[in-house]
Structure formats: structure tokens, C-alpha cells
Amino acid sequence: MNELKTLDDLGTALDPASATPPERLRQRVLAETARDSGRAGFRLPRLTMPSTGRRIAAAGGLAAALTAGVLTTQVVNVGGNPPASTASAAVRILQGAASAARNLPAVVVRGDQFVYAESITTAVGMPQGQGADPGDMTVISQRRQAWFSADGTRDGLIRERAKSGGGAKVIEMPGCRDGVRVQSKGGKTGTQPCEPEAHYRRDLPADADGMLAYLYRAGGGTKNPRDQDAFNAAGDLIREAYLSPPTLAAVFDAVARIPGVTVVGDVKDEAGRTGVAVALTQVQGSRTELIFDARTHAFLGERSTQVRDQDGLTAGQVLDSTAIIKIAIVDRAGQTS
């Protein structure tokens, strides 16, 4: 069950809106958190084209201890060169990342702990409403801290503040206990049936074949190409989540087998770090990118880039970008180490 959608539904029941938002607005929401059910972690929704209602790119995280300098196996010298689009280079990067992931120390995660995710995100917001000028875009940049219940039963927390500074927006995420989630809004309290959504997944495949099959199943149910949905499912799975070393390695190995995955050279994450991107072009007109350090293969973040002029967007425009600052397992919400 999607926890934040559940909270939205409960909030609407407690404080009904005066009108239903138009479909185009719903499709382009950029400043909320977490959609898609059954996938590890919450994140800012991706920019979505009106033709499909499917998000294009997202912010997010990978796994505890996957910070710059950790992945130290095979090197692909693409940094500093013109952008490359070779499947073989993508495979080498992903295989190197998988090899190093297998050597990461395993973290024993208790059900009463939290996955802490810290990131910097920027996303483009499109104007809404009849007669809106596509050129009147907005840019949302923020620093984000999130605490997700490992077993889904504890109360989580998200803090977001503008990248330029200022006060933080706090989003409470009530846990699901005894099949009930409790939320308060405007002095009113309501309950809703639920199932705990664990943010530390113990049930995921730890081999490439099993993970690849899982990604295609998890990405199903849309009209998009299956390979595109599987690639997006991999990003959803590792975003703002801790995976065991064998499972994390299996994700990298599985992505390396998805047809159409290529390399884009000389990209920057939202923290200004230079890397290379393992990418897949989406039918909606953008390219979804997972960014790695070109030398160490450390995961740096994600980005979405427009590949053709359309809908008020221009080729080469970055639609959203995320830098992963930290992923950790902590004992309580609000703790950062």
C-alpha cells in the first residue's frame, strides 16, 4: 500500500477540498513525496508527460555505505571525453559497481530501526491551467532528510527546506500498527486500514536472474516499453533505501542486462560532482540517468534530461537532478548517524 497516498486520502476525508484538481495538474505534481506502491523508499515524484501519466525521473538513494570512493573495481575512462552511448561501457560500469557492492559490509537491520536518507534535489515545475504559458516554468530546489521505518510500523518523518535556506517543511508519516494508521490534521484525527510497508526489504532476489525477473514484474502494468519500466523499477527499488550487499549487486547486474542501457559522459549531480551516467531514453522524450563516479563507480545520484524539443521543453534541458548525500541505518527518526 502506498503510505503517502493513504495519508493524502485520509487528509482529504478530514479536510475535503473544494474542487478536484485537473488531470494535467495531477500528472505534473513535483513538490510532494512518494508515489508508486510496493517500492522501497519515498521520493519526490518525477516530472510526468501528459501522454502517459508515468513519471520520467526522480530523486533518491542507493544503499548505506555507497558513498564516493567506495566502489573501486573496474574503471571506464569516459570522464572528460565527448558523451558516449555504448552499451558495453554501461555494462562495465554496472559490473564494477556490482563487484564492489558484494564486498560491502553487511548491516544488520532491526525492524524497529529507520533508513535515513539525505539528498539535494532540483526539479522543473510546468505551469498549469488553461492558457498557461509553457515558458513560465518554475524550479524547485531543496535539501531533503527522510526517516523511513524499517518494518513499516514506526512513525517516520520527512524534512524539506529550500536549497537556499529557510525553515523546514515537516511531513509526518504515521506507521501502520495492528492494521491501522492514525493521522491528525487540523485538530481532527482519523484512522484508515493499512498494511505495513517495510523500507528494508528482506524478500528481494540476491541473484541477477531473479532480480531481472523481479524488475520486469515490478515495472509492469503500464503502456510503456517493458525495458523502460524495468529500468525505472530499478531506480525505484534502490531509491532512499538500504539493500543488503548481495541484493544491491543483483540490481546492478540486472540493469546491465536491460536492452537499450547506454552511457552518457561528463554529467554533474546536484552537488556539483562530476560523473558518468548509465541511462535509458524514455519514449516520452526524456533520458533517465543513474550517475556514478567515473573512476570509482560510486553512485552519486540521478537526473532526467530532455532529449527532444516538445511541450515547452528543449533538448538538453535537465528536468530534475538529485545528489545523494547520505544513507544510513539509525535507531530513531531525527537521528542522522
Automatic annotation (TrEMBL):
The cross-references to InterPro entries, in alphabetical order and at most eight, read:
CU044_5270-like (IPR047789)
Which top-level group of life is the source organism from?
Answer: Bacteria
Where is the region Disordered? 1-22
Listed NCBIfam families: CU044_5270_fam
Record's protein name: CU044_5270 family protein
The opening ranks of the lineage are: Bacteria, Bacillati, Actinomycetota, Actinomycetes, Streptosporangiales
